[in-house]
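Can't attach files on this board, so I'm pasting raw text. These are the components:
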Amino acid sequence: MSMLKRAGLAAVLALGACAAPREQPAESPRLGAPLQPGAVAAWDISIPPSGAGLPSGSGSVKQGALVYEQKCAACHGVGGTGKPADVLVGGRGTLASKAPVRTVGSYWPYATTLFDYVRRAMPITNPLSLTNDEVYAVTAYVLNLNGIVDADATLDAQALPKVSMPNRDGFIDEWARAKR
Amino acid sequence: MPSVDRRGFLKVVLGVTPAALAGPASAQNLAGEEWERVYGTGFAPYGERSRFEQPVVRYLNQPYGSLAPGSGAAYSPLESLEGIITPSSLHSIRSHSGTPDIDPKRHQLVIHGLVAQPLTFSIEALSRYPMVTRTHFIECSGNSNRGLAPKPLQLPAGAIHGNMSCTEWTGIQLRLLLEEAGAQPQAKWLLAEGADSAHMSRSIPMEKALDDALIALYQNGERLRPEQGYPVRLLVPGYEGNMNVKWLRRIKLVETPMYTKDETSKYTDLLADGRALQFTFEMGPKSVITKPSSMMKLPSRGVYEISGLAWSGAGRVRKVDVSTDGGTTWREAALTGAERPKAFARFRLPWRWEGGEANLQSRTTDEKGNVQPARAAWLAQYSPGNSYHNNCIVTWAVAADGSVSHVYA
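---
Top answer:
Structure tokens for the assembled complex are below.
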């Protein structure tokens, strides 16, 4: 090794000693496997307010009362009165009080969220077990308990996103506000 | 190998009886406790702390009791810990439907929605990606809601403020995976979803995903613990804990938020007029004195160190001021770890207790100039029913007898 090369190496080593290379923008090994379009549906259970992705099927308030009694009432109480799990009804007009009660009826801005949550997480002991008809039905029942849909209502992919929730305009989007 | 107890081992190998080592014959007046006179225990494949430290445990909050023992939270015992890294075994937990028992060979992470090509990643594949290591806190948005009870709860600091912890996380920068899937420009949000039985899901701004979000596989050098999201979790540093989706199974790129249960009915901050703030992601500047703190007792007058934790979701902690007179006068504390953004800093200040009453407070200022608010100022922002994002100044009162209690001031 020439003196010059040796001096250069020494300089590199010295530099390395005081400043390790910074974290580089990483290059991806690109190991993701293509997911076939047909495979997406089984994963894609999230339902936005537009209702995009709602499954086929339907359920009535009356059918929902039966589902609720069998699979929900043990935790949420007869008629959605709560205990030990969350209360599902009432609370309208309390949000600005000193003791606000936040329920599906008084607080939730979108009915699609109720469908989404029941389907993905309920009943807590056996989620993903309800049929789509049962999820529509129990959603209709809980909305009816809150006086939001009529007792003879039937919900499906078209009707659910059209349900108008009382607290729809009760939220201030802080993310959007900070961007403005 | 046949089982040979320690005494048998000593006899066989050393040719002496244990009595010769530890018995009266060796009783010279040399210092040495009994454990210095016997051979110690062998190695354990996985470490355990001293039996004398076993009382240091998380505080469990299980609002549904045995009906749903994994729904609720476990608080980190902050007052018994030091430094800035929470041990994985004492890291706070917040879960909605318990901890799933996930087989990493079967778990997949799917990325789809507004992408050129929907992809699925095995844990084996993810493990081959280039990784980064960061130290970050995770704080539940509902942390310190026990500090909002009508009367101050007399609980240890960790049982009130320990729904947060700070550890070292190692994982993949999320933007790498999003680029690989070919994220489309109209994707402004992503839905992150867990593989727990709640399928907990939150909408995350794409801006955050491309900034510093991590797909974490390791915590404190080992694979994630099940209760922390094994085998893979999302980390959105500085954002409310609920968004750091554990057991991550799916990311869907979308144009607008999905308005999931946990960003509408929960984790929205009610105002006095009945409206609520939504998408309040960043955790504000905050601190809590851990030593001395609620339920402790100063044994005598003299010199103490006031020590505690400070953090901010906006970045680094710039300074922590400490008051011993309920906020009338303040002194700046020394900081450890403040060079790390969105991580705990440890503050320390020497203090001489002369035996009188003292109200101890701490106040964080972060690098953006955000200041931890006084209790009255914080309360004035919200409905009395709001229990999220409580970052107000905490007061511990030292009485003349040295006992320390939780007070509102």
